[in-house]
Structures are given as C-alpha cells and as structure tokens.
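Quick one: structure tokens for this chain, please?
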Amino acid sequence: MTELPTTGTPNPLAAGFDSTSTLEFPPGFHFGSATAAFQIEGASHEDGREDSIWDAFCRVDGAVFSGHDGSVAADHYHRMPQDVALMAELGLDTYRFSTSWARIKPGDRELNPKGLDFYSRLVDELLENGISPWLTLYHWDLPQALGERGGWANRDTAYRFADYALEVFEHLKDRVVDWTTLNEPWCSSFLSHAGGEHAPGHTDPAEAVAAAHHLLLGHGLATEAMRESAGREHRLGITLNFTVADPADPANPGDVDAARRIDGSFNRVFLDPIFRGQYPEDVLGDMAEAGLAGHIRDNDLETIAAPIDVLGVNYYNGVLVAAGQDPQGSEQSLVFASGRGLPRRSPAVGSERVQNIDRPLPRTAMGWEVQPEGLERLLLRLQDQYTGPAGIPMVITENGAAYDDEPDESGFVDDSAGRLAFIDAHLRAVHRAMERGAEVRGYLVWSLLDNFEWAFGYDKRFGIVRVDYDTQARIPKASARWYAQVASSHRVPAWE
C-alpha cells in the first residue's frame, strides 16, 4: 500500500483543516465509489442496446474532444466481474452505478431481457463480494427516440421515465436497497439545453427551464411509483450537484446579488421544490423571461416534493462571482468548459450577467478550483436549511478530481500530490462538517475507473484506477491504494 508522503508539512490542498492529525469515521460510515453507464460500459450496440442522446451527440462534428465516443469506453460490459473483484480488493463497501435506459428499454419500447440481465448479474456479483449496490436510474443517457420527440423539454418524458423507473425497480428491488432517481439534473437541463455543453447540445434558455421542471416532475412521479411498491428497507433519493457561490465583494450589493442568482439557478431551483414543494420566488423572477413558471401545472409541486430517504450530494468546487458581465460574453460554464468549437452560452439561466472571478487556489486538470472548505459549508447549510428539518441523511455520491496522470513504465500513477491529496482534503471537510452536526453517512469517490468524460472524451481522467485504453488493463493508482486503507480502517491518516 502507498502511504501519504512524509513531507513534514500539512496537505497543501487542505487549507483551513488540520491535516496533520488522524481522523476516524464511525463504523457505519460507507466508503465506496461511483460510475455511470455511458462512461464505462461500452458495448453500445450489443445485446439489443440502441442509441441514447449521447451516442447521437458524439457523432456531431466538434461536440466531443477529438471525436471520441462511448462505444467501447472502459469495456465494463465485458469486464464487469473483474471490475467488481477489483472493488473488493480495494475494500469498498458500496458501489454506485447507473442503469442505461437505452439498454434496458431500447427506443423506450418494451423491456430488453438481455439489458436487464446485465444489471441483475452486476448486482449479484456485488452482493457476492460483500459490496452494497446503489442504483441510479438516470445518468443522462436518454433513449435517442425520446430525444427526437423533444427529450426532457417534452413533459411526456417525465411519465416515460416513471414507467422505466418502476419496471427496473420491480426487477431489482429484491436485492437493491439504495435507489437514486436522477443524477445531477442541473447538467441534463441547464448545461445541456442552455449551455450547449452536453447532449443534446442546445442553447435555448426556455428549453432548459422546461427540461429542469420535467426532470423534477419525473423524479417525483418515479419516487411515488416506487414508494407504493417499496418495502421498509428501501431508501429512495436523488443526487444533486452543488456549488458554493461567494460574492467577490460582500459589501457590494451587485456582487451579493450575483452570488444569490448563482445559488438560485444552480442549487435552490432543485432543492426548494424537492424539500419545500415550491420554487423560490426570486428564482421564478430570475427565470421569468425563460418561462419557468409557465410549466407548473396543478399538483406538480406536490408530486415533486414526494418524500425521499436520502440526499445524494455531488461537489467539485465553488465559485467567486461578481456582477456586470455582458451576457453575450458569458460563454464560460460555471464548472464545465471543454473548449469545443460548437456554439455555447452560459448555462446559468437568469444569471447571464454574472462574472466568475479567479482565486489564488490550486486547480485540477479540468481548470476547477480546489476548495474543500466549500464542501464543509455546503453540508452544514444543507443540514440547517433542508435535510436536517426533513430528517433526511446525506451521502457524498460524487467527489473527485481529474489530474494529468503520468504513468511509469508499468502503468502505475503516483497521484499522491494531486488526486490523493484532493480526496484527503475533502474527506477532512466531510469529517469537520459531521463534527459540527451534519448527518453524512457515506463518501463515494468519483470515480472508480478512468472513463469517457462526456464532452472531454478520454482526455480527462478522474479514476482512482488507471485504464490503459489500448489494452483495457486496470492499474490502481496511489490514490486507490491509499483509499483502500481508509475504507478498511475507517481512518484518514495524518499527512505527516
């Protein structure tokens, strides 16, 4: 096992935390990993699977880095037993994966037995290795047939999703306890339909707010349907991605308003309907021109607020913002920017004039700031304003980093100063938040394997396990070996 380097100095990425001390997590705390179907499975047209909107998007000239696609990815479809064995070797107790709608219901028609069988075998393999399966029903791979009928901008897709969700639930509920409806609806609405960064690559704010509302509606409909069929042991939830928006000048009303707008268009537009059964009035005002309020029908908000059992928290970084940018120049995504040649615009509907301000913080290979203290603040805020009052625990369902890995002759990557230090710093932030009252029950690192990183193709690597795309060999990085120690001991060792 690779130990932390004995530098005699604290982890430089853990600013604000004492990284020279060993931390202990409670025995019931879960340590695991997360992946997504389209990013790792490959086998894009095997055993009945048909196109998703991401298969179609990959064929658009300039949509994805170097024309990469997900047809092979990490070949997990053929290597699943070996990948589960690798998880077991690393001592992981939880694995969050997504099912592919395009594989289970190709073209959103009848169920595909071979598609369902793959996930049934995956679940069995996990359980045989002592790993709890955590199933996400939607991680952005909408069947292309539904995309051609308007996708999530079409209200009917919410009902189609609920049907698909219930069918998967009925087939796997005997062995799967933890269920997530949607992963990061911000990405599949605003980033995809306003920002142009993700499939289907559109840049229409009106379409984006329709997609956001229909995704929430689909979540509520699916949760209601599964709840009627669920046993007391099942835990149903949703995973949202969050940012922490700070004003560049807290004394400047314009900057304070800019932070409010980003918080509204990124966080509260999803949190408030789920936990409070209403959209925030200021967000409805910010998105009035795009027409958010016009999509709300009778009983929608009651459905969206269907009780959940757990909130999945995805966090990568926060932002420092200021007022005053010309909306025509606001082309840089909050947390995504692939540098593609396709037209794109700000995904922050209602916040187009907000300007991002660079801070003197370390950055990952994605260009994202490393800000672990933002995760602590986020968890405490969620506990205080949303999950705590509702009596709902949180799990970190994604947190991790891409770095420019440099493998040695054997393919091993020593990422101690990058990815390992990043995970260490964020685990310290989680621990600190728990000490201050946040009810967090697990941490699932993103990601188990290097994979297809959406518009960045295979150019960016998030995995704690390196994938040699020429041979499909899996080589655990230093971060994986260290994380295995953490998972087995429930201790984050001192940096010194």
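The chain has 15 helices and 15 strands.
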